[in-house]
Amino acid sequence: MVINPNDKNNCEALSKLASNLLLNVENVLINYEGKSRNWDVGYKIDGTENSHDTYYTFKYTGIDGNLVKDVKYSIDTYNEGESGEFKNHNSKVHTGKLKLTAGLPKATDRDMLVKIEWNGKKESLILKKSK
User: What residue spans define the domains of the chain?
Assistant: First the structure.
């Protein structure tokens, strides 16, 4: 981790790590992954049972990635859902932080469904917990 007081993400991560060490709380990392014909999607939960963050990554794997501009998505999780959109600025990868507030998934929770729309096309894929 680089120490840079102006890097908000690194400062938050360092603060979370220090708090967890002080309170003897174990960090949890849960990953879900899925692929469709044109997309790879990742979903990561990082933190503790009581305080965690959820992140997503959309990676366009199809042809002519520079033509993908406006992307709409929905993520249907085990007990919540979220939808949104993002602009693809000449990059094949988009990451963001989800606003989901639910607790951590249980071993019995189902896989997640992701729907993506771009350039008049639609795809769906299933995110499965990675090992």
Answer: 27-129
